[in-house]
Each structure stands twice: as structure tokens, then as C-alpha cells.
Design goal:
Length: about 450
């Protein structure tokens, strides 16, 4: 009988993978709490801890009874309606909750989108429309920093790192935006290095101010661009530059929002309130795709009074009631629980458990922030080999480039985190062994 994985290879195309189906696949048979039950291509079953939170979204774990119940209640009423000219309670409830949780008290309007990438598209369009409505129609470009990642759709790709990112194969299709140097790393930043960076990005902002609509960055932690942490002071610099030059500040909190870095939003580390903020991933606890764009009243009023009279975007599944209902429940779990202690526990466990990796010659750095742990290697990892080793140690990871990293669910126990860290170090050891073998040959 043809296996599920064989059937998959015949018709499906997986993310960041060839259609030929040469990379290993693992069939998910069940999920609960922080655990997955996987079946490999040879038919063996593996019980593993999900160190990825399914790409950083399942912060409360799988099959959470509160989230299951929220979906079931909404399903009994209606699963979807268009949002043009209609509204419903899950959307209103969610918007009110997001506004209440957001940094400061200026983010008062919510636009619901399909995914993180789409929310970035909306944020960029909103910034351009704002500048046009404010009498500055030539302001069509964006200032950002190297090393960033904001999604795989076209406008989002245009503000990702143009050289080291994943989108350099599309040079003729990407917008020509302005890229400043990456901020200094948080671990070894000094007043001198921060000052030099401030001068460099300040010069760029001054040189291009008349053509810039906004500054966009991932605050404090760059995600898929390298799991790179930088000082909160740099976010404050960006706020000052935006204010000085009449730019909007867009903070992409899709990966960092809802507690992942140790604050509810990464912007809170810097005490900064953006003009526009994107959230996603953990918003629904990993149950359904949903993202949101929050903006200030000033931005919303300017665009609404413009010639266009509207924000020119409207996804078919905008404000899907099932997604809104489970998102509200997910945010309720955060507010009613002790997420800060949970994130602290996970982070402390990762810091302790990953430290032995520094003894490996193949490893250049080990770092943590909030509930994020990273092993950085000298060379790109063999994804298949690293994944296989981690699974054999009871852990699911999805490394990329030269990084083996974890963003576990917040509910992970100290024992869970210890197992995750041990599996990651073992996976890094596999890389070290491979390097030694090649050197011997």
C-alpha cells in the first residue's frame, strides 16, 4: 500500500524545498500539549517535543481545551462571513483586546489580515497612503536594516535583507528600498558601536527623507534573518529618526509579539510606541491563520480623509470568525495566566541547557532572549542530518542556514526544556562530527 509520505511526494510542494521531494518527510499522527507523534519514512514512530511551536505559533501547546472550545462554540454559530459591510462579535472583541494590550495608548485602529506577510503588505500600503494623504506623494520607499525578514510576498520581500535574505533571486521584481547597517549585537554592544550605528542610519535617513514613507524593523530580535538580538536603544533611535523626518515607524512584531522575547511586545523593551504594528503567528495560538495591523488614530484619520477615502486592501477571509474567536481565547490565556514566568522558565532552561554547545568547534555562538534559544554554527547545517539527530533525541527542530534554534511553547516544563536543549546540542554535535570527517578526508 502506498504510504502517506509517498502520496505527498507525488503531488505536494513543501516550503523552501524542491518539488522533487528529496528532503526527508515526517508524518504527524497526533499532537497534544508540547508533543508530536511522528512516523518516519521507514514506518518507525517517534514521540518528540516540538521545539518550534509550529513556526513560533503554538505558544499554549496543541489541543488546548480552552482554544478547542472557542472554535467549537463559534463553529456552532457560523464559520465565515465576508467583512465588507458586515461585522460580528468575534472581530469586535478581538480588536478591543488587541488595542487594550498594545504598547502605549496610541494604537487604536485594527485591520485584520490573512497572514503575517499580508499584514506587512497592508502596513506598507498604509504608510504610503498616509504620506500621500499628508501631501507628500513622493514618499514611496522604506528605510530598514540589514538582516531583516518580513515575509515572502512581494512588498514584504522588498524590505527583507537584499543580499543575505532568501529573495535575492528576484532582483528585478523587488522595490529599491534603503538599507542601513544591521544594529550591533545585544551581547557585545557598547556606547561606541551604538553611536556609530546611530550616525550611519541617521545619515541615510537624512539623505533619503524626501522619498521615505516609513521605517520598518523587527524590534529587538530579527527572526528568520538570523535570530539576531540587538539593543532596545536602537529601537529608540528609530523612533527619534521617524519623528524628526516625518516618517512613520512600523514595528513587525509577528514573531516577537505576545511574550516571546520576555515582554508582551518587543517594543516594550525600548518603551517605544510605533505608528503601525504588525502581529501574527502566536495570535491564534497556532490554530488558524490570522494577523493584524494596528495603527494610531492619526494615521487612520489621515487615510480616511484622503482622496481614496479608504485603506485599499480587503482580503476575502479578513476577520474570519473562527480565527477571531480562537485568537481572543488565546490572548485571554495570556492575560489570565503567568506568561512572564513561563517565558522566564523556558529561557533559563535554554540558557543552561545550550551552554555546553559552546565547547564544540563547529559552534560560534549560543544566545537566548526570552523563550528563544539559538546555537549558531560556522557553516550551513545539513538540515536532514540535524533534524534526524534531534528526532532520535526526542526533539523536533527545523534548522535553517547556520542556526539550530528553539522557540518552545510557553507551557513547556523545565524537564521538557532540558530535553529540547539536550537534543539541540546533540544535533550540533552531528554537525561537528561531519566537519571533522570532511577534514580527515
Amino acid at each position: 500500500m502506498t504510504s502517506l509520505i509517498e502520496r505527498d511526494r507525488a503531488s505536494l510542494w513543501h516550503p523552501y524545498a524542491p518539488a522533487s521531494g528529496t528532503l526527508p518527510l515526517w508524518e504527524v499522527e497526533a499532537a497534544g500539549g508540547v508533543a508530536l507523534r511522528l512516523r518516519d519514512e521507514g514506518g518507525r514512530v517517534h514521540e518528540v517535543l516540538d521545539a518550534m511551536s509550529s513556526w513560533w505559533s503554538v505558544i499554549h501547546g496543541y489541543r488546548h481545551p480552552v482554544l478547542d472550545a472557542a472554535v467549537q462554540r463559534q463553529l456552532a454559530s457560523f464559520s465565515h462571513v465576508m467583512f465588507g459591510g458586515l461585522t460580528h462579535q468575534p472581530a469586535v472583541d478581538l480588536a478591543e483586546k488587541l488595542v487594550a494590550m498594545a504598547p502605549g495608548d496610541r494604537l487604536e485602529r485594527v485591520f485584520l489580515a490573512d497572514s503575517g506577510s499580508v499584514s506587512v503588505e497592508v502596513a506598507l500600503k498604509l504608510a504610503v497612503q498616509f504620506q500621500t494623504a499628508s501631501g507628500r506623494p513622493k514618499r514611496q520607499r522604506f528605510l530598514t536594516v540589514r538582516g531583516g525578514y518580513h515575509g515572502d510576498t512581494f512588498a514584504a520581500m522588498g524590505v527583507c535583507d537584499p543580499v543575505d535574505g532568501m529573495h535575492s533571486v528576484f532582483p528585478g521584481l523587488l522595490a529599491g528600498n534603503v538599507f542601513a547597517p544591521r544594529p550591533p549585537a545585544a551581547a557585545d554592544a557598547t556606547p561606541e558601536t551604538i553611536g556609530a550605528w546611530r550616525a550611519a542610519i541617521g545619515n541615510l535617513a537624512s539623505a533619503h527623507a524626501d522619498e521615505l514613507a516609513a521605517i520598518i524593523v523587527e524590534p529587538v530580535l530579527q527572526g528568520a534573518g538570523g535570530m539576531f538580538a540587538y539593543p532596545p536603544e536602537c529601537v529608540r533611535v528609530l523612533r527619534e529618526l521617524a519623528d524628526h523626518h516625518g516618517l512613520l515607524l512600523i514595528l513587525d512584531e509577528i514573531a516577537t509579539g505576545f511574550g516571546r522575547t520576555g515582554e508582551l511586545f518587543a517594543a516594550d523593551h525600548a518603551g517605544v510606541v510605533p505608528d503601525i504594528m504588525c502581529v501574527g503567528k502566536a495570535l491564534t495560538g497556532g490554530y488558524l491563520t490570522l494577523a493584524a495591523v494596528l495603527c494610531t488614530g492619526d494615521v487612520a484619520r489621515a487615510v480616511s480623509r484622503s482622496g481614496a477615502g479608504a485603506l485599499l486592501h480587503g482580503p476575502t477571509f479578513m476577520a474570519n470568525p473562527l480565527a477571531c474567536a480562537v485568537a481572543k481565547a488565546s490572548l485571554g490565556l495570556l492575560q489570565d495566566g503567568d506568561w512572564r514566568s513561563d517565558v522566564s522558565r523556558v529561557g533559563a532552561g535554554l540558557a543552561k541547557g545550550l551552554a555546553p554547545a559552546l565547547e564544540l568547534d563547529a559552534v560560534t555562538d549560543v544566545r537566548t532572549i526570552g523563550a528563544v534559544g539559538v546555537i549558531e554554527l560556522r557553516d550551513a547545517v545539513d538540515v536532514a542530518a540535524v533534524t534526524r539527530t534531534a528526532v532520535e533525541h526526542g526533539v523536533w527542530v527545523r534548522p535553517f542556514r547556520n542556526l539550530i534554534y528553539a522557540m518552545p511553547p510557553y507551557i513547556s516544563s523545565a524537564s521538557d526544556v532540558e530535553t529540547i536543549a539536550t537534543g539541540m546540542v546533540a544535533a550540533a554535535s552531528t554537525v561537528a562530527d561531519t566537519v571533522q570527517q570532511k577534514a580527515a578526508v
